Amino acid sequence: MSARPDVVPVDVPWRRETASLGMWIFLATEVMFFGVLFLAYTHARLADPQGFAAASRLTHEWLGTINTAILLTSSLTMALAVRSGWAGHRALVIRLLWATAFLGAAFIAVKLVEYRLEWRDGLVPALHFTYSGPHARAVQAFFFLYFVMTGVHAVHLTIGVALVAWLALRDRDPSHPVRRRETAECLGLYWHFVDGIWIFLYPLIYLVELWR
Amino acid sequence: MNERAGWLLPAASDVAHRVDHVLFALFVVTGFTAIAIAFIVLVFCLRYRRGAKVDRSNAPANKRWLEYTWTFTPLAIFLGFFAWGAVVYAGFYGRARGAMPVFVVGKQWMWRLEHANGRREIDQLHLPLGQKVRLVLATEDVIHSFYVPAFRIKQDAVPGRYTELTFTPTRLGTYELHCTEYCGTDHARMGGRVFVMRPEDFARWLAEGGTRPTMAARGFEAFRRLGCSGCHDARSTVHAPDLTGIYHRIVHLQDGRTVVADEAYIRDSILLPKRDVVAGFEPIMPSFEGQASEADILDIIAWLKSTGPTEEK
Amino acid sequence: MSAAAIPVPTAPRESFLTEGYTIASWLTTRDHKRIAILYAIAITLFFFLGGAAAALIRIELVTPRGDLVTADTYNKLFTIHGVVMVWFFLIPSIPATLGNFLVPLMIGSREVAFPRLNLLSWYIYVLGGIFTVAMLVAGGVDTGWTFYTPFSTMFSNTHVVWAAAGVFIVGFSSILTGLNFIVTVHRMRAPGMTWFRLPLFVWALYATSLILVLATPVLAMTLTLIVIERVLHIGIFDPALGGDPLLFQHLFWFYSHPAVYIMVLPAMGVVSEMITCFARKRIFGYRFMAYAILGIAAFGFLVWGHHMFVSGQSVYAGMVFSMLSMMVAVPSAIKVFNWTATLYKGSIVFTAPMLYALGFVGLFTIGGMTGIYLATLAADVHLTDTYFVIAHFHSIMVGGSVMAYLGGIHYWWPKITGRRYSEAWGRVAAIVIFFGFNLTFFPQYLLGYLGMPRRYHEYAPDLQVLNVLSSGGASILAVGYLLPLLYLGWSLFKGPPAGPNPWNAKGLEWTTDSPPPKENFREPPLVTEPPYAYDPEHPER
Asked: Among residues B270, B4, B288, which one has the least CA distance to residue C460?
């Protein structure tokens, strides 16, 4: 699969729009994919609201908050990279992409620390779950959904980090300026989507009882 | 079993007649429409076949009024059927004043049925003619579905909750009972018979099983055996709600909600005591999941019902 | 598949078929036409696998006693039949074969938007198929294609994880196909090909693609949760864990009801093309037809709860879903009326594809009308989970989708292969299938009304006559499905060259060679007129 098919003319405007429209549709499927988990969360939380509040108190909200800050910053660097790509500053773009990848990796590192703390506390359903206080069943359901949702999110983010790093490496080759820009734009959409999912996860996981 | 006379299914309950009316109307309307469409297609196909010498000038490709006609006419007919079907359907789940309760527990691959006086049956159900019946369904494993074709009733029994259904048998006889929600190996054999008897025969039949304690009596026994009475008894030192006459009463919960103490609420309170804590009480009750069987819970509910003035009207 | 099996058309010029003769040239192709053929081969294999399971089911049901296979084997048979037919045949059938081949041709494009993703989707399909076949070889699965909890998560002792994995994987091939079509239709239309000049087949595939990309991920996630719950005993569906089995049913049908429209919308598109061509008339009410397609796709997302009228969901939810289901029936009715009106003042010729199309209209009408019975709450309580439901959805999927698929294969066969098939045999097969279908499924409507539950391998002896009739019809149906394999196979090698437009049909795909060249059009097409510019007074034009 080396050579591009000669029948596809490299017609700049529609190629770019094709890729980004495809990315938008892909993100629509992702919304439905995560939607199942959000629905499951809503269902379980309505079944035992106090249990979910109790479970939320067991999370490490300061780690979650740090991660939110990290991810929002990474979205900023990603957005700047995409914009600078249009303006044509290659060195800056590469630096911004590396910053984005680094922040993404930092998020995953913090997340792993958090998982480790939860393992220590015996809050990992099915594998190491020792919690036996009130609302044990709701707490178990909460942490089950917590691990599935943050796990799926982390997988998405890992893919994102890999793609951004790949783009940063490939960007040294100046031969494909047009393709580089459209790729960066699609990757930016993906990155912001993964960030957006976290914006929803953060309050659902850490801030259940903030208003009390 | 030859309950089906030729290709007709007997209608042996009040519900069955109402459902049959809907089905018959559907059959007439859709049958007429299908024949009409087939006829028109055939006529067009013959008349306008290639080579036939007919007038083909000014063939229309669009007629706005025609499109609206065949959009809104079917819509009106369909909505009419919706309304009719919904009214009949609501009747399955209506208030069951004066109904005789029968408790149904599905289990791979048998039906266990229990009457209020404690008489139990397996894969058989005896019912008195003309008496309104309220089925309360539960299951001990997977989803089952209780289906009596001659009654036109069907209801899933779902793990973790009670479902119910009301109907009145209106015809003497023996009818098929099936499980219609796929439940594993012997799904096809999970069924039995429903016997509709004269009320006096039914009373005699019911009394034959009278050596067993009633459900309420067994419920009281379970209430003590499981230790519920240790806290919920009026003389207990532990601060727990008194349950006398709780059934169908309004209960105020800690978080401000109010619920009616129906079967589902009582069941949840035994298995998930921390979920709906009564206002003014501490959430100290442990869950009885794994200790109280579905049968125990049904018995306890029957006993709680018997303690109140609102017992099954 | 070997290189020798690929025919070299006698057509004078080169085509996409002559671009390469090696297996590698096929397995690495990014040509949408070749990928369509790869898909056609794969889904045909799965069709006969699912058909074999159906045959065993019908043979078992000839007698009321379970004497041919054990209860467990029977349960595995209907599960395999459902899983294979739904996910490995019906859902990819028209979109991945005819759709892949025709959408770029019909809109005047050289390619789909993402050729590599298109090839990847085929490989994903094959991988999902391998999982499914491996699951079969390992002993099968007995949950039914619906995977209801808690049976699938806690009670079944069969290979649920493998089956779920196979379906999960094949879902991504659907998503990629859908994504590709949406972007292709948006971005790659030829100059002058406005939205309301699109053939209805393209409209249908566009709407189907929307459903594919929006519904399939829900199934993927739901199956993931099933697998986690089965393997780790932790989840959200089992009440013993604080979960709710009805939540699974909601999620499952949120996918699987729209999936019905994934199967039937493309069929409607195919039939619209064939009826206009062989009646030599513009489709009646083109815009209403296009809107009806979109209406079905949109409303199809709102009616999933009608599978759950006796499941214990709220009575009021049942009422809302019943009303919405009535509404989704209206656009289907509109389509039937418009097809009928298209025949008026036409110049009708009864070719094999036209016979399939007329058969589709009849059987789809029956399937749609019996759907009204099932959407009516009170009637559904009696009829659901009986053979009435089986007959109803087979009317839509076999009487509808399979008829249209076969009709489409015949209609575009000359375009795809460059050769004609035997018209006489084609008509015979269409008629045999129509009669076989009716004999198979009409008795099943009666059986359902008489109270024979589905998924039963034993039944009351007085229902035997109807079951024998149904099994007899199924054997006729089997003959009907084998016939095209023979004469179409013969046509591959011996059929006379078809020429670019054997039906004298309109549409861009008929303006290029048969088979088309690799780049589809030798001259970039320009569209100047609405679709279906037929004139019944001059059928030769």
From this structure: B4
